[in-house]
Request: fold
Amino acid sequence: MEIQDIDNFLKYYSRIKGRTKALFEYIPEDQIEWTIKKGKFTIGDIIRHLALTERFMYLENIQLKPSLYKGCGEGFARGYQNTINLYNNLNIESNKILVELDIESLQEKCETPGGHKITIWKLLRAMVEHEIHHRGVLYTYLTLLNIKTPPIFGLTSEEVIQKGKR
Reply:
């Protein structure tokens, strides 16, 4: 997918973010800092990581600035509601920056934290992939907690199979 129009990208990205936000409603507030294993991201860390990398890594890089990402621990937002608010508020900030991009700026090159030069629209595509990857981790964590999660597109795998047997 090549990104040539920021308005279309923002509509698409909003739907991606919406599917992630829908999953937050399934997280028990008392499990926000649950982790699969000591030393691994907690549920809250994943949400904070998404918020903080979007705004302070990806968005800084597309503005041709170095990353300001400094981690994702509880020091950035403590508790369920504060963590969700961080995610939402930083996305609003990000969108205010993104809306300013035009076709020419999407074609410019920026530098990643690893020192790689990349076209800005390609970095935005990577940002989407990053969101989807970590949403998948949230689904896995919630499954391990025996929490029934919503299907992404309306039907579960089992429901698709059942409908195909007609």
